[in-house]
Here is the input.
Amino acid sequence: MSPDLIDLSYLLAASLFIIGLKGLTKPRTAVRGNLLSALAMLIAVAATLRHQDIVGVTGLLIAVGIGSFVGTILALKIEMTAMPQLVALFNGLGGGASVLVAGAYLAGKEFSARVASGACFTDVLTATAASGLIGAVTLSGSLVAFAKLQELKFVKDVSFPGQKLLNLFLAVGAIGLGWMLVTQPEHAQAWYWVMACVATGLGILLVISIGGADMPVVIALLNSYSGLAASATGFVLNNNLLIIAGALVGASGLILTRIMCKAMNRSLGAVLFGTMQSGGTSLSDEEVYTSVRSTSADEVAMMLEVSQNVLIVPGYGMAVAQAQHAVRDLTNLLLNRDVDVQFGIHPVAGRMPGHMNVLLAEADIDYERLKEMDEVNSTMDQVDVAIVLGANDVVNPLARTDPNSPIAGMPIIDVDKARTVIVIKRSLSPGFAGIANPLFAADNTLMLFGDGKKAITEITKAFDDA
Amino acid sequence: MLFSILAVQETVAEVDGTVETLAKVVSAVTEAVPQSGGAAHLILLLTVFVLAVFLGIEIITKIPPTLHTPLMSGSNAISGITLVGAVLATGADNGPWATILGFSAIVFATMNVVGGFVVTNRMLAMFRTKK
Here is the structure.
């Protein structure tokens, strides 16, 4: 295949990636969009195999076979609740591939010939350094994120004095080593691998202190990095397709990161450096929880019977309790009795962007019932019963009322403005922000203590019997 | 003494020969591989990159929050495009070290690509509306 024909195939692939992403703007066209992207990838790889420099295809096909097999098994076996981990893992693999490709380029013949010729090619060297640096941070950061989401025991939240300083030191060190690579191409390989090691350490330290509700931001940011790493590899190999595809992914990750940060009213820096404003004037648990009233499943079922509009606000607790199927049963029952059910989804509910939506879709709940925060807030006064299931900080009215609270200014779902609020929760323990929630003690709030799945199942049963 | 001088002369001649051969290889490579050096070329690549970022921002801001998880796993799969680079690095006859690195890169990247597209497809198939 002539180089021109290969480049044209790359152009076709790039176009299909863009059309495929555009398909994702509507649930109806999304499946086709994803298939188009997959087709684009197939075209790109097939065209590359026809490149004149490719001598042995057998080894390549073996590698592709191994990767495809393992990837497919992982993708088919994974539980929907474990989706954040899987995305983190795949992210890391993408970053790792960028590190290896840039490393292989430095070990290759084209590179040594260029060094020997003494030709100036600072641009390619810079791109190689960038590819290795970003790729290594993505790889180690994603693997730490994976371990944390999977709740592997050996990974603990680590924070120690001087951590920010050490991070800064490592970042500057990695960039410095990258600079050495650029200025001393004859020792490029040595500088490259030392730099990759330092960047790996940086990735670990950056993510190890970030936890819980900040995870969506980290995953989105790492997603962006994996795209940027691919783009940098494109600059190394002088390949437009890598540059375009990587830029699309980089943009996607950046936008998601921005949305997540906005939804928590925190700056990206505050998330990355794990600084949480301490709640100086926030009230203690005893002061807040003076008039908490608890309720029973039967009582909730009776309330639902006389309701017209029910709003369910899910949080990470729903994922932990695997309660989505129980929620579906309750929803269907309510709909059969002409009670309208909607879901209010906060942008940072769960551990990754759109986490709740996927779980509810898995349980076969119509996606048109899943509403965004602003939409449910505008009609909150018509809601008879709001059921908060495993969510805490995203419904804490302190965000509106207490300017000194750590979550001050964070947009929340205003369930406290509904007629009655049922909060299903194991205990009164605080959420990620570590502060008490006055919603639990509000006059229109009833607490239903217990496991989310069990509680919903009991309500469903009581409602059905009535 | 004489022998060692002769030996040095031989080595010098050999080195000379190596340099000459190397120079030939380099000029052949330079002719075969389009040079990426030069500011103009770099700016061209940067232009493509910047335009693609803007295009990405335009498209992705239109994607509804409901589809954000599939967007992440799908775009993740796309970032596995490094696979193309991995194939190029491995397939060309570049010596064992580059081949080992490239082979591992292909395994990593295909896992990312194939796994990413399959799991995205699995998720998207669940988004239904009952009409």
